[in-house]
Amino acid sequence: MAEAKLQVSDEIAISIENMNKWYGTFHVLRDIDLTVNRGERIVICGPSGSGKSTLIRCINALEEHQQGRIEVDGTVLSSDIKNIDKIRSEVGMCFQHFNLFPHLSILENCTLAPIWVRKTPKKEAEELAMYFLEKVKIPEQADKYPGQLSGGQQQRVAIARSLCMQPRIMLFDEPTSALDPEMIKEVLDTMIELAEEGMTMLCVTHEMGFARQVANRVIFMDQGQIVEQNEPEAFFNNPQSERTQLFLSQILGH
Amino acid sequence: MSDTNTTPVAFVRDAMLPEQAAPITAAGPLAWIKKNLFDGWFNSILTIVAIYFIYLIVSGAFPWFYNGVWTTDSLAECREILQGKTGGCFSVLTERWPQLLFGFKYPSEEYWRPTIAFFALFVAVAPVLFNKLPRKLLIVTAIFPFAAFWLIWGGSILVPIMVAVGLIVGYVVFTRLVYQSSAMGMIGGLVATVAVWMLSGYITDPLSGFLALEPVPSRDMGGFMLNFILGVTCVSLSLPLGILLALGRQSDMLIIKWICVVFIEFIRGVPLITLLFVANVVLGYFLPPGTNFDLILRVIIMITMFSAAYIAEVVRGGLAALPKGQAEAAGSLGLDYAQSMRLIILPQALKISIPGIVNVAVGLFKDTVLVSVISMFDLVGMIRGPILASTEWNGVYWELWLAAVLFFFPICYGISQYSQWLERQLATGHR
């Protein structure tokens, strides 16, 4: 893969300063500071319950943070609904369980948001949807319903659905964790292709091969804190903290 | 030993076997009878006993229908004709047919009006029930309630028109103001509607003869027509109200949530009969003296509130059954609350709730006969009151109650069949 293609600009896409979040009295995220430049591909890993999903869900306000400041693409995230809707239409998200809309066909899944949020004319939205469905290599499934597709196909549709909003940032919340092993590759290939085109990406995943190949930064989280972050080579070959070493030995040790 | 070595263990089939017809004992009518009716001695006995009971019922009922009398003027005449034979006296149905349909006070020369309204109803509901029909038919649906009101109650056509104008003005004001805030939109719309209604009194009063049909007051409504009016109106009002209550109960806004919870729990905790008595008697004490608050309107409000509370709980069940990810996915795509509810959440939640909603709707339709308890002459009220109490027909129970069954059953069964068809239509291979 050509490293030169994966240019990172100096422009800041996401900046998180001193962010804290509690679930009731439980302190899930502690003093998170994170700056993501445009074009960066970040992989976030860590044991379950470490707050990594919560972190990326705060970025598009699916979770509310109680302290600190999040700025996405120049818009400050506050409780103002207009800001939230603006950020959400610029930030795409893929979920572990795909969350396709089962009552709508694949094509309708993809055209829904452009039509209702962007006010794109229906025909144009359908052309756009077909373009992205072709990109994730399932244009022939456009008229089927999500329930008729395999898991890997559903996740690729979910990626296409997000792309139809032409987001500048993509969040992936364990996109391959609910998939059978032989389907993981097709989803990862789609994500790699996306990365090569310069999309800003934050991925919560345990696919370390993907991290080595695509990421330009790997973040390790534990107990609601960022414990270590580094470039992938250094991160995997020479982890600094004891906690990271233990985690890596557990997931790479078999 | 040597010949075992000559046949190799590997096997390759060189010709595929053709399909053969199943033996007569495995398929066909005889096999079906054997499998379903005479499968072992115990099932055979059960089958024979069941056939015997069916025979008893049919042989008992058949002469009752076959010898039935359809043309006499009283039960006494029926008995004269039958002379002790078993036979139904169906003349009560032919002679009192208009009363069963329209009650005993609705002017007979105006029967054509509710009849037209009845048939227009099918045109009006068709585009709502069947998605494939042209959407332009929805205009008929929108006009129907006002036209039906005019036809059934009579009076000047200006009254329903002004009601419609009020609603349209309110809606326009709502859409203008809703961009500023939804509360302002609602209040503004409500004020505008009420203002138009109040002002319209100055138009409708002097012009009360304009395109007027002979007015028929609510207390003259009766028969199955009354059940039908109540059933159709209350079902179509309680569905949207129930959905709003269900959404309100899930709302993050505490005051709205608690209003909905209290309403639902209170209404569900009270028998419908009690609410109807409240509508009939008690409400009068609270209203200023001289207010003429239409009795049917009061009953409609009570039944609607009652079934809306039930539908709200059914819909809440549907909402709770949806994975949280659906709302999150809708949100992450930038859809706002109203859009995600209308396009994503409600279509799925309502689909899950169809059996429950239909259950409530069928129950509501049958419960409309309870108005006979507050001395309204619906179908049951007519049978129990004017018809059975008359000297001619005193004692004709079987025939009349059978007729009541035949009025209600096809409609309720039709609703249930429609809902099952709808569920099959909406199935998209999910789960």
TrEMBL record, chain A:
<dbReference type="InterPro" id="IPR027417">
    <property type="entry name" value="P-loop_NTPase"/>
</dbReference>
<dbReference type="GO" id="GO:0015424">
    <property type="term" value="F:ABC-type amino acid transporter activity"/>
</dbReference>
<dbReference type="Pfam" id="PF00005">
    <property type="entry name" value="ABC_tran"/>
</dbReference>
<dbReference type="InterPro" id="IPR003593">
    <property type="entry name" value="AAA+_ATPase"/>
</dbReference>
<dbReference type="InterPro" id="IPR003439">
    <property type="entry name" value="ABC_transporter-like_ATP-bd"/>
</dbReference>
<dbReference type="GO" id="GO:0016887">
    <property type="term" value="F:ATP hydrolysis activity"/>
</dbReference>
<dbReference type="InterPro" id="IPR030679">
    <property type="entry name" value="ABC_ATPase_HisP-typ"/>
</dbReference>
<dbReference type="InterPro" id="IPR050086">
    <property type="entry name" value="MetN_ABC_transporter-like"/>
</dbReference>
<dbReference type="GO" id="GO:0005524">
    <property type="term" value="F:ATP binding"/>
</dbReference>
<keyword id="KW-0547">Nucleotide-binding</keyword>
<keyword id="KW-0067">ATP-binding</keyword>
<comment type="similarity">
    <text>Belongs to the ABC transporter superfamily.</text>
</comment>
<protein>
    <submittedName>
        <fullName>Glutamine transport ATP-binding protein GlnQ</fullName>
    </submittedName>
</protein>
<keyword id="KW-0813">Transport</keyword>
<feature type="domain" description="ABC transporter">
    <location>
        <begin position="14"/>
        <end position="248"/>
    </location>
</feature>
<dbReference type="InterPro" id="IPR017871">
    <property type="entry name" value="ABC_transporter-like_CS"/>
</dbReference>
From TrEMBL, chain B:
<protein>
    <submittedName>
        <fullName>Inner membrane amino-acid ABC transporter permease protein YhdY</fullName>
    </submittedName>
</protein>
<feature type="transmembrane region" description="Helical">
    <location>
        <begin position="295"/>
        <end position="315"/>
    </location>
</feature>
<dbReference type="GO" id="GO:0006865">
    <property type="term" value="P:amino acid transport"/>
</dbReference>
<feature type="transmembrane region" description="Helical">
    <location>
        <begin position="41"/>
        <end position="66"/>
    </location>
</feature>
<dbReference type="Pfam" id="PF00528">
    <property type="entry name" value="BPD_transp_1"/>
</dbReference>
<keyword id="KW-1133">Transmembrane helix</keyword>
<feature type="transmembrane region" description="Helical">
    <location>
        <begin position="159"/>
        <end position="179"/>
    </location>
</feature>
<keyword id="KW-0813">Transport</keyword>
<feature type="transmembrane region" description="Helical">
    <location>
        <begin position="111"/>
        <end position="130"/>
    </location>
</feature>
<feature type="transmembrane region" description="Helical">
    <location>
        <begin position="259"/>
        <end position="283"/>
    </location>
</feature>
<feature type="transmembrane region" description="Helical">
    <location>
        <begin position="397"/>
        <end position="416"/>
    </location>
</feature>
<keyword id="KW-0812">Transmembrane</keyword>
<feature type="domain" description="ABC transmembrane type-1">
    <location>
        <begin position="224"/>
        <end position="419"/>
    </location>
</feature>
<feature type="transmembrane region" description="Helical">
    <location>
        <begin position="137"/>
        <end position="153"/>
    </location>
</feature>
<comment type="similarity">
    <text>Belongs to the binding-protein-dependent transport system permease family. HisMQ subfamily.</text>
</comment>
<keyword id="KW-0472">Membrane</keyword>
<feature type="transmembrane region" description="Helical">
    <location>
        <begin position="352"/>
        <end position="377"/>
    </location>
</feature>
<feature type="transmembrane region" description="Helical">
    <location>
        <begin position="224"/>
        <end position="247"/>
    </location>
</feature>
<dbReference type="InterPro" id="IPR043429">
    <property type="entry name" value="ArtM/GltK/GlnP/TcyL/YhdX-like"/>
</dbReference>
<feature type="transmembrane region" description="Helical">
    <location>
        <begin position="186"/>
        <end position="204"/>
    </location>
</feature>
<dbReference type="InterPro" id="IPR010065">
    <property type="entry name" value="AA_ABC_transptr_permease_3TM"/>
</dbReference>
<dbReference type="InterPro" id="IPR000515">
    <property type="entry name" value="MetI-like"/>
</dbReference>
